[in-house]
């Protein structure tokens, strides 16, 4: 049979709707399969994430293993990632708009025969608006009065806060600092630090420009059963004093929703016994809380290390290496280091040797502890 060109074209056009319908059915079928596949895999991912957050009871302590956990471990214990602290006050007052606090008291912390000059200074915050609140481990800025040699206002200096958020009188309206007057020799002349001298010389009733608070590096953990290891020299004891008052002062504990149940261990370095700061309070804590507080002193000009040299804080760390690293292997232990920057190399060397005795590598362990939020350093 012979078809005309017109009939052939007409017949072809007539089949187009059929072809389109056929391809539509195929596409619909595969789209449904794809959607079902995606939903099935999504549920599998949810189940996997849920399983990763289950509580492990392989040991006598429950360890939660979150999905974002660091894979490294210390002594078989996982190092979790650093927790974020909520509601930490920061920069309520800035250099352009400081708060003028009134000096309440300023007295020496040293005993007869001590080296240098160290004072405890307290400021009234009751008239600050907005209120200058802070928490333990933070710092405030001090803007010393006067001008430098170029006729410009002196630069702001930061100081670690030595009081708890409730203040020394537990009324919540003061802040205290522990300040050592900086002195050094230059070209045969004794140079006094600008801000430290200013603070040591101020008198009750004087006005001082204050900024802050600042800092989240040295905050205490939220857990009441955490272990706190503190390594301090000189006025580096300032934040440690705040921690210990929060832990062990009866009036402070009565005000807190946080009751310390762990172990606190303070390593304190000083040149002479007369330079030990807040010693009466520390001895009182030892008597009242012998199961929760340990105090180790390194007095460089009065004690000797095992080699016959001066006793420094790193020597005490080495002496206590086994016990110290048993604590570090516990994921609830935090280490705080505060004082002169020159103390860091000695501490690092001591921790390296102490870690080796436990079969650990400190060069690898320290950054792991840092990432986990368990290694806190503030040196100057």
Written account of the structure:
Helix content is 33%, strand content 24%. It is α/β, with parallel strands linked by helices. β1 and β2 (63-64) form a beta hairpin. α6 (313-319) runs parallel beside α8 (343-357). The termini are far apart.
Report the oligomer: single chain
Poorly predicted segments: 1-10, 16-20, 22-26, 32-73
The CATH homologous superfamily name of the largest domain equals Nucleotide-binding domain of ferredoxin-NADP reductase (FNR) module
Outline the biggest β-sheet.
6 strands, antiparallel
Strand order of the largest sheet: 8-7-12-5-6-9
Q: What name is given to the CATH topology of the largest domain?
A: Rossmann fold
How much helix is in the residues? Answer: 25-40%
Helix/strand/pairing category: alpha/beta
Determine the N-to-C terminus distance. 104 Å
């Amino acid at each position: 049979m012979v078809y005309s060109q017109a009939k052939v074209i007409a017949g072809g056009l007539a089949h187009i709707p059929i072809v389109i319908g056929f391809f539509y059915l195929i596409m619909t079928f595969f789209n449904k399969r794809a959607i079902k596949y995606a939903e099935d895999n999504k549920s599998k991912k949810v189940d996997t994430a849920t399983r990763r957050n289950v509580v492990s009871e392989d040991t006598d302590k429950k360890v939660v293993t979150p999905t974002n956990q660091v894979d490294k471990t210390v002594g078989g214990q996982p190092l979790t990632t650093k927790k974020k602290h909520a509601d930490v006050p920061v920069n309520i007052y800035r250099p352009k708009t400081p708060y003028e606090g009134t000096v309440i008291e300023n007295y020496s912390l040293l005993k007869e025969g001590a080296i240098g000059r160290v004072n405890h200074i307290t400021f009234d915050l009751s008239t600050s608006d907005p209120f200058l609140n802070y928490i333990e481990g933070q710092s405030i800025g001090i803007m010393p009065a006067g001008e430098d040699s170029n006729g410009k206002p002196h630069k702001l200096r930061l100081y670690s806060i030595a009081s708890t958020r409730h203040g020394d009188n537990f009324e919540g309206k003061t802040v205290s600092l522990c300040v050592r007057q900086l002195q050094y020799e230059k070209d045969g002349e004794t140079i006094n630090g600008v801000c430290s001298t200013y603070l040591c010389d101020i008198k009750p009733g004087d006005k001082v420009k204050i900024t802050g608070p600042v800092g989240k590096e040295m905050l205490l953990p939220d857990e009441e059963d955490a272990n706190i290891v503190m390594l301090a020299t000189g006025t580096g004891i300032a934040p440690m004093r705040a921690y210990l008052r929060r832990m062990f002062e009866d009036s402070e504990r009565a005000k807190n929703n946080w009751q310390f149940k762990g172990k606190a261990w303070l390593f304190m370095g000083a040149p002479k016994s007369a330079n030990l700061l807040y010693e009466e309070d520390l001895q009182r804590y030892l008597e009242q809380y012998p199961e929760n507080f340990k105090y180790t002193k390194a007095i460089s000009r009065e004690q000797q290390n095992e080699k016959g040299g001066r006793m420094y804080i790193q020597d005490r760390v080495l002496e206590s290496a086994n016990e110290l690293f048993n604590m570090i292997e516990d994921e609830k232990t935090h280490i705080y280091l505060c004082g002169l920057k020159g103390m860091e190399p000695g501490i690092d060397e001591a921790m390296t040797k102490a870690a080796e005795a436990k079969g650990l590598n400190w060069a690898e362990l320290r950054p792991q502890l840092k990432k986990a939020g368990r290694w806190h350093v503030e040196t100057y």
